[in-house]
């Protein structure tokens, strides 16, 4: 049976928010969730690629490779 119980880690101890539903020695696995700011990706900045990307003048022209399919 798998059971998840929320808690927190502080000063080398794990404190559970409720009692575990087992009464004998049981194997456990602990997953540490990082704080909200540690794995948060950076916000995108609109226009940050301006001047770094160029499109050729014939960008919207049909491709020669596709002539047989037209």
Automatic annotation (TrEMBL):
Residues forming the DUF2281 domain are: 39-69
**Region: Disordered, residue numbers:** 34-70
The protein here is known as: DUF2281 domain-containing protein
Lineage, broadest ranks:
Bacteria, Pseudomonadati, Bacteroidota, Sphingobacteriia, Sphingobacteriales
């Amino acid at each position: 049976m798998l059971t998840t119980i929320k808690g927190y880690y502080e000063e080398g101890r794990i404190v559970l928010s409720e009692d575990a539903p087992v009464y004998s020695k049981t194997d456990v696995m602990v997953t540490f969730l990082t704080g909200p700011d540690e794995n948060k990706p950076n916000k995108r900045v609109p226009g940050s690629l301006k001047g770094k990307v160029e499109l050729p003048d014939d960008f919207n022209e049909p491709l020669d490779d596709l002539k047989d399919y037209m």
